Amino acid sequence: MTDLCSGSDSVALYCDFLDSAGKNDAVWQLNFAAGFAASKITVSGGAAGFNPVIYLYTSTCVSGSGCVASGDTANPLPLAGVSAGSYFLAVTAASSDASGACGAVALGTDGYLPVNLQTFSID
After folding, report:
1. Which of the residues 69, 85, 97, 119 has an alpha carbon 20 to 30 A from that of 28?
2. Angle subtended at Cα 35 by Cα 31 and Cα 36, rounded to the nearest 5 degrees
């Protein structure tokens, strides 16, 4: 679980057209290993005025370009057709939410999703 209210606004535009300016983001780099069997990534959370969305993309971390897939609380991010390789996974408020919209979110998956850990910290 991560709380976007304590994050920062790192990416202003996802998928070259979905506005995230003024909304905090959490972004992770994932390296999908060959043979992963998960078919989707889910996001849960949200509150009045905050509707979390997730994006899987291939460009640089801060550009938000090269969208592979997206999802929200009602529509999981599909992994069908996603190849092994390096991606960024981001969660933020929906483009239709007001600036400053944020809240706690949790991500999940429905199967085996081997990833290579890049970095971690203990607070």
Report:
1. 97
2. 60
Read off the pLDDT band of 34 (50, 70, 90).
Answer: confident
Q: Is residue 57 part of a domain?
A: yes
The sign of the CA dihedral 70, 44, 89, 115 is negative
Q: H or E segment at 53?
A: strand 52-57
**DSSP per-residue string spanning 7-42:** SB---SEETTTEE-TTS-BEEEEEEEPTT----EEE
DSSP lists the bridge partners of residue 86 as 31
pTM of the entire predicted model = 0.86
Residue 99 lies in a domain: yes
Res. 97: pLDDT tops 60: yes
